[in-house]
Design a protein that fits this description.
Radius of gyration of chain A: 32 Å
Number of helices of chain B: 3
Largest interface: A-B, 53 and 55 residues
Shape of chain A: elongated
CATH architecture of the domain at 50-144 in chain B: 2-Layer Sandwich
CATH class of the domain at 50-144 in chain B: Alpha Beta
Structural class of chain A: alpha/beta
Mean pLDDT of chain A: 80
Helix content of chain B: 25-40%
Number of helices of chain A: 4
Distance between the termini of chain B: 76 Å
Strand content of chain A: 15-25%
Radius of gyration of chain B: 28 Å
Order of helices and strands of chain B: HEEEEHEHE
Oligomer: heterodimer
Number of strands of chain A: 8
Chain lengths: 172, 146
């Protein structure tokens, strides 16, 4: 019997075809680079705001809410000074400092109870630009220490006062 | 003078591809990890206000409903642009879906992504319509101020 003589020797290298893999890998890379989008982090302010029940008596044990009045100029910017509980403020920083003093007042309810119970009611003009409202919420909610990254919490409960009645213009 | 004859080099010089492939795979892994396909919570028409304190939510919301509010005060929900009053039937549908799931509108969170230059009154109108449908938990979204 005659056997076929094989020419291949055992030390032959089997070479992998790298070209298709590199093609695919580069296509994937291009796809990911093209679809990559740098998105800034978004954060939330949670507000629990049920529809106001009519005729409900306010709870006497609760702290009365701080009423913050934000009035708009013609162009929608914030009119300064603005009012909170009869006091005027030129900027949100001074408002924040006032609230921190209220929170740390030794004759007050104490910082923990203040943070839990204090509430700010926002009375905003219809045409006020929304970023001023967020700035106000930012100032009222807490103070960020940029050096340490820690936040001093101030007022956690925030609500909007019912919008002024604009029955003729509402929902245009 | 006898010149040295150069031997013909028949062997093929192959570049070492291993470092390039290593790096390419690392790049792919990097982009794969960072890719974000969820465009539902984004809208090009909305530029969020900046905030120092707004931090990404720690917990996943159980039933989020996102409403975008454009500069003109138009609400965008599920890709549909409607004025505040137009949200009523859409929110009723959402409330019905919640009821079907044995939940109530109070279990849902309304995420409001308002344009920074939108009128606050327009946003309050939208909040009012949501409140009328029984929703009471609102989340005002802002962009982290870096």
């Amino acid at each position: 019997m005659k056997f076929r003589h094989t020419t291949s020797s055992g030390d032959d290298k089997i070479e992998l075809q790298m070209t298709p893999m590199i093609d695919i890998v580069f296509q994937l890379l291009v796809f990911f680079i093209m679809t990559f989008k740098i998105v800034a982090q978004e954060g939330d302010f949670n507000i629990r705001m049920p529809l106001a029940s009519e005729g409900g008596a306010p709870d006497e044990s609760q702290m009365p809410p701080y009423k913050l009045y934000l009035t708009a100029n013609q162009d929608g910017t914030l009119e300064v000074p603005f009012l909170m509980d009869g006091l005027t403020f030129d900027n949100f920083k001074s408002l924040q400092e006032h609230l921190i003093l209220e929170m740390e007042d030794p004759n007050g309810v104490g910082p923990e109870k203040f943070q839990e119970e204090a509430e700010v009611e926002l009375h905003c003009d219809y045409g006020l630009r929304y970023d001023f409202v967020i700035q106000a919420i930012d100032a009222v909610r807490g103070k960020l220490d940029r050096a340490t990254g820690q936040t001093i919490e101030i007022v956690q409960k925030i609500k909007f006062a019912p919008p002024p009645d604009r029955s003729g213009q509402l929902f245009e | 003078m006898r010149m040295r004859r150069k031997k013909a080099d028949s062997s093929i010089h192959e570049a070492d591809l291993t470092p390039m492939i290593d790096m390419t795979f690392q790049l792919i892994a990097f982009f794969m990890v960072l890719i974000n396909f969820s465009q539902s919570e984004q809208n090009d028409k909305v530029k969020l206000p900046l905030s120092d304190l707004a931090k990404p939510p720690q917990e996943v919301m159980e039933y989020p409903i996102t409403i975008h509010v454009t500069k003109a005060g138009i609400a965008i929900i599920g890709g549909r642009e409607v004025p505040a009053i137009g949200l009523k039937p859409l929110l009723q549908n959402e409330a019905n879906v919640l009821k079907f799931m044995d939940k109530s509108p109070t279990d849902a969170s309304i995420i409001i992504r308002g344009h920074r230059e939108a009128a606050t009154g327009k946003i309050q109108d939208i909040i009012k319509v949501c409140q009328e449908q029984g929703f009471d938990h609102f989340t005002l979204r802002a962009k982290e101020n870096l």
